[in-house]
Specification:
Radius of gyration: 29 Å
Strand content: under 5%
Mean pLDDT: 88
Oligomer: single chain
Low-confidence stretches: 1-32
Structural class: mainly alpha
Largest sheet: none
Shape: globular
Number of strands: 0
Number of helices: 31
Length: 565
């Protein structure tokens, strides 16, 4: 899934600095603390910093009284509780802080949200209002305090009052204001709702593709079938692999009774989406613990909206918490065919990253078979996966099947022919591979990596050298600092016996990719032809030390060390 990043990067820097400094103990030396408490505190902080919430919780839960002298302790502890979905415990702890007059933004937010979820808005408002009135809030906290308080007050607000409150939001959050305006129109069931949603999803100032789902979902709930179909069609044209849209489309087509996973008249749902926006932006800046805090608040408010689980899983993936990510993806699999396939892909990638290739392939085969009618994008994803894991014959069959369903003008045609061409080349069927590469370039002549793949293949066969040069110069103009293209360009000059130009390009490729065996081997050959034999032997010997050097290359280098290239 692609991240939505809004105009909040500057404010995130503020959070980053605040959060990083808060992780260092600022404990008064005037009070004596038990060595065990200090040890537990430091261990808890370190564990949280490593996004190990279970361990952080284990250490922090046994500490008493540290909140009085170290105000960030409670913040750290709440992150651990919420990120473990221990909402009731987080609520009780937050109430304890209040009783001791040690409450903070996070604790009041937790209590307020907890009361809202339990349909006690009159109790929630006390805490949300207190956050709104705090003077020492960073811009993101201020944003949250304004909007969460607003959505908790809707029974008492008019449309105009609500729009007016949006004007209190920092101008840096203009994109969020646009999103909120769309939801306000929907909440108050304004006649302009469709127009406002339409303008939002077609606004080119930011990536609002996610909101195609909310637009289509609104139209479907209103039984406006023609407009719904048009919205779905337009959304899939822009983002054909959008999970939310594809699953909604599939469910509607099957006539299934739709679980109302999002309703803009449900203020909890809209609050959850706000937390998602904040969490997503924080995740894009690698503030994973804080991001997880807000995404779990979103899940608490709207547990049926599976998109939140996906971001939670992605955050675990980014920090290499593979087992935790797998558990979350397994939950995602139960929410429809589209999600089942997506989650299976992610789990398979986790297997691959841990060198468990066969398990990954087995999982995807099983998942693909379960899809009643796979679309061309699911077929392409599976074919690419098979190709990348050396299952070339199976990949070729699937690529070929896709090509019976599309023509040269289809957006994925170049990718399909390129993928099949690589698989043909890998099994030794060069004639078919070459034809596929040529067809891929015919459909899209500006594919730098296809230009490089085809040209380099010709170079290795010592054919079409002049044509290869033209193609590689074009590829190099498209991708100026790509090490593979730079190496190929140097290598074709070598084959054309222009050893000075060859040296210039391959030397650059070595700087860009210093541990690549092929590039260093090439550079050795070029140095030899430039009468730099000592340096050439140095690079060949270096290649022999690299673990990725294949046996046939080692044998060839052994000969070159004696006789030259």
């Amino acid at each position: 899934m692609k991240k939505l990043v809004y105009n909040i990067i500057i404010t995130l820097f503020v959070i980053k600095i605040t959060f990083l400094f808060s992780l260092f103990p600022a404990i008064s030396l005037e009070k004596a603390y038990k060595a065990k408490d200090l040890s537990n505190y430091l261990s808890g902080v370190i564990s949280l910093n490593e996004n190990d919430y279970e361990t952080s919780y284990k250490f922090l839960k046994n500490i008493n009284g540290l909140e009085k002298d170290h105000f960030t302790f409670s913040q750290i502890y709440l992150y651990s509780l919420i990120n473990l979905n221990k909402f009731t415990e987080a609520f009780r702890y937050s109430r304890k802080l209040e009783q001791n007059q040690l409450n903070n933004f996070e604790s009041d937010l937790v209590v307020g949200i907890y009361h809202l979820k339990n349909k006690k808005p009159f109790l929630a408002k006390k805490y949300l209002l207190r956050n709104y009135q705090r003077k020492s809030l960073d811009p993101i906290q201020k944003l949250i305090s304004i909007l969460i308080l607003q959505w908790s007050n809707f029974e008492d607000l008019s449309y105009q009052d609500s729009i007016g409150r949006l004007e209190k939001i920092d101008v840096r959050f203009e994109n969020i204001k646009k999103i909120q305006k769309s939801f306000l129109n929907c909440y108050f069931d304004k006649s302009s709702t469709s127009k406002v949603f339409f303008n939002l999803v077609n606004d080119k100032s930011a990536n609002f593709n996610r909101y195609n789902f909310f637009f289509a979902n609104y139209l479907n709930n209103k039984n406006r079938t023609l407009e719904y179909n048009n919205a779905i069609k337009a959304a899939l044209k822009k983002t054909p692999r959008n999970l939310l849209i594809n699953q909604l489309k599939l469910d509607v087509e099957r006539g299934e009774k739709l679980k109302n996973i999002f309703e803009c008249k449900n203020n909890l749902h809209v609050m959850a989406e706000l937390f998602y926006l904040v969490s997503n932006a924080l995740s894009s800046q690698k503030f994973y613990s804080v991001s997880n805090f807000y995404i779990n608040l979103a899940q608490f408010l709207n547990p049926d909206f599976i998109s939140y689980n996906i971001l939670f899983a992605e955050n675990h993936n980014y920090i290499e918490k593979n087992n935790e990510a797998k558990k979350i993806y397994n939950k995602v699999k139960n929410h429809g065919d589209i999600y089942h396939w997506f989650a299976s892909k992610e789990i398979a990638n986790i297997y691959i990253s841990n060198n468990r290739h066969q398990e990954g392939i087995k999982l995807l085969r099983q998942s693909f078979k379960k899809i009643i009618k796979p679309n061309i994008y699911q077929k392409l994803e599976f074919a690419d996966y098979l190709k990348n894991n050396d299952k070339h014959n199976d990949a070729i069959k699937l690529y070929t099947q896709i090509l019976t369903e599309i023509d040269i003008n289809h957006p994925i045609y170049p990718q399909v022919t390129d993928g099949r061409g690589i698989s043909f080349e890998q099994i030794g069927n060069w004639d078919k591979a070459e034809k596929d590469f040529m067809n891929s370039l015919k459909a899209n002549p500006n594919q730098a990596y296809v230009l490089n793949y085809l040209a380099y293949s010709w170079i290795e066969k010592n054919i079409n050298l002049e044509k290869s040069l033209i193609m590689l110069e074009k590829a190099n103009n498209l991708r100026k600092n790509d090490p593979y293209i730079t190496d190929s360009l140097g290598w074709v000059f070598y084959k054309l016996k222009d050893f000075k130009k060859a040296k210039m390009h391959v030397q650059k490729a070595v700087r860009l990719m210093p541990a690549d065996p092929i590039v260093n081997d090439h550079f050795g050959d070029i140095l030899w032809m430039n009468k730099k034999k000592i340096q050439a032997r140095y690079y060949w010997n270096y290649v022999l030390t690299l673990k990725d050097t294949k046996d046939n290359m080692r044998e060839n280098i052994a000969k070159k060390l004696v006789y030259g290239p």
